[in-house]
Amino acid sequence: MILPLIPLVAPACQPAAAPLSEADIAALQRLDTADADAILTEDADAIAALYAEDAVEMPPNAPANVGREAIRAWYATAVFPAADYDSFRITPGEIEGVNGLAFNRGSYAFTTAPAGMAEPVTTTGMYLVIARKQADGSWLWTVDIWNADAPQPAAEGEHTEGEDR
């Protein structure tokens, strides 16, 4: 009766998972650098080019952007008109993956001068992206989510939750 043993033996016959190479890790880190550069130059097209066509971006306090064009449009119409970035830094903390899928978890920090604020604001936070290796060997983000370490300060004259009026 060999048939009942097949489910136990079959996993042992599978090829070993292919870990990320140094070149893969460097390519994933270049996505972070390209993202920071594109944000500082307010280049929505360059940001969109980092994402797969079917990517999902989940920004804080906003609906998900589904698809590369929605991501591009969100930066062009909602993000860049609202703030002037003085600095933007991404610091990868952990990059892992196998078989053409990888995740990158890290932190970010940026300083911006939002409309209605007397002084520039520095924001720090964390992110998690999932990337997929493309047929040409490049990597693109497929899922992106981030959030700030603390709530954004309110604009002058704006009421915040829990604040006395």
Average pLDDT works out at 86
Reported by name, the CATH topology is Nuclear Transport Factor 2, Chain: A
Shape: elongated
What's the CATH C level?
Alpha Beta
Helix content: 10-25%
- How large a portion of the residues is in β-strands, by DSSP E? 35-45%
Number of domains: 1
CA-based gyration radius: 20 Å
The structural class is alpha+beta
CATH architecture: Roll
User: What order do the helices and strands follow?
Assistant: HHHEEHEEEE
Terminus-to-terminus distance: 78 Å
Strand order of the largest sheet: 2-1-6-5-4-3
SS element count, helices: 4
Q: Describe the biggest sheet?
A: 6 strands, mixed
Identify low-pLDDT runs. Answer: none
- The tally of strands reads 6
Word description of this protein:
This protein has 165 residues and is α+β, with helices and mostly antiparallel strands. It has one domain (19-148): Nuclear Transport Factor 2, Chain: A, CATH 3.10.450. Helices cover 24% and strands 36% of the residues. The chain contains 4 helices and 6 strands. The chain has helices at residues 6-9, 22-40, 44-48, 68-79, and strands spanning 51-58, 65-66, 85-98, 101-112, 121-133, 139-148. A hairpin with a 2-residue loop joins strand 3 (85-98) and strand 4. The longest helix is centred in the N-terminal third of the chain and has 19 residues, at 22-40.
How are the SSEs placed, and which strands pair?
Layout: H1 6-9, H2 22-40, H3 44-48, E1 51-58, E2 65-66, H4 68-79, E3 85-98, E4 101-112, E5 121-133, E6 139-148
Parallel strand pairs: 1-6
Antiparallel strand pairs: 1-2, 3-4, 4-5, 5-6
